[in-house]
Structure formats: C-alpha cells, structure tokens
Design a protein that fits this description.
It contains 4 helices and 2 strands. By secondary structure, the protein is mainly α. It has a domain of 74 residues. The protein has a two-stranded antiparallel sheet with strand order 1-2. It is elongated, with a radius of gyration of 25 Å.
C-alpha cells in the first residue's frame, strides 16, 4: 500500500512539473514582444500586405491535387480561390475602406498563371 501511495505522489509531482513547464512555455510564447523598425501605424487602421507568391503556390498544389482527384475538374468551376484570415486584424464591425471585412484577403489567380507555375514545378522535360 505504501508503495502505491509513493508512486501516486511521484506521478503527481512529475505531472505538476510538466504542467509548470508547459504553462511557462505558453506564457513565454504569448507574452513576448518585439520591435521592428520601419513599421508605421495610424490610429484605427491596420495595413495588411498580401502574399501573392504564397497563395499562388498553394493554389498550384490544390489545382494539381484536384486535377487528379476530381473527375471533370475545371479550375474556373471548382476552385473558389485563396482566402487568408489575419486574426489580429479581425474585429466585429471593422471594415476596409471599400466595405469589405477587415483582416480577410482573397485572391483567385488566373488559370494561365497557375498552369505556368505548375509546369515550372514539373522541371525540364527530357
């Protein structure tokens, strides 16, 4: 009986230590700050830069996958586009100057661009 109690207490100590380490890691990750030169912010606005190259590469990957997995796949019909959600830029009631939702960026690259990038990823043909 004493041995089971000792094992149980040691298990609690180990769990407490692991929990403390995890809590410290979470606290460190969410409370760190950094400064970057060249940033400029105006009160009430958030400037979000889009990521055309990243979305194009993801679009190529999805396009290639759908082409092989979906019979009769057509880019214009089956692919809606890329959507990026910038969580730090989203708040209820926040909108862009054009009335669209703040923190949301969408793009659907032209099929010709996606086909060209796809062929570049295939590499040279022998």
């Amino acid at each position: 009986m004493l041995d089971k109690t000792r094992k149980f207490l040691m298990s609690l100590v180990v769990l407490a230590l692991l929990g403390s380490l995890a809590a410290f890691g979470v606290f460190a990750a969410f409370s760190s700050t950094t400064t970057n030169s060249g940033n400029s912010f105006a009160a009430g606005t958030v400037a979000i830069a889009d990521n055309d190259a990243g979305s194009a590469l993801y679009t190529v990957a999805v396009h290639r996958w759908l082409r092989h997995r979906l019979p009769g796949y057509l880019y214009e019909q089956h692919f809606g586009g890329a959507i990026y959600a910038f969580v730090r830029g989203m708040r209820p009631g926040w909108t862009q100057a054009d009335g669209s939702a703040s923190g949301v960026w969408t793009q659907r690259p032209p099929l010709a661009l996606i086909e060209r990038l796809s062929s570049l990823l295939d590499g040279p043909r022998p």
